[in-house]
Amino acid sequence: MYLEFTKNIINVAKLQRELIALNGKYESLYSKGDYIRLKFTSNLIQSEVDAVSSLINNFIEIDITEQINDSLLSEIDPWIDNFLRRVRAENIEMGITQFGKTLPMQALFEKQFELSSGMFVSMMGIMSTGSITLLIPLYDYFIANPIIYSGLEPFITEERLLEWKAEVIEVLTWI
User: Where in the chain are the domains?
Assistant: First the structure.
């Protein structure tokens, strides 16, 4: 059995996945321009025809996973890369190597801290997973516990932590 439709479909692979999930009788799809022909292994009852028609008529090209992936690639990942590169450049300019603070600063970025949730996180762990919302409570934890970064001034200070926190909050408003 064949069903024919007039609709321009770009993401054919997504449509095929949805057709397979919708109806076990779906066999194949032919698409050219705005013409679509669906082949089924056997005849469909009216409710199945209605379901397939509804799927085609209401088909949305982009799925939420693709949108999230695009956002991560275009917004979050570049921000993380730029943030880390900028912090490194600022620290080098301030003399982190000459003051012998490269290793302690690296250790601070990698050290796990227990947040109020009882879960442990590290700044680099947060950055590598892209879960930047967790930077806010981590920065708050650092600000409330300055002993953590004592001796690492000027490379990490309350002022710098507040700037980083404000930057994260700003980034989260545009995604």
Answer: 2-57, 64-173
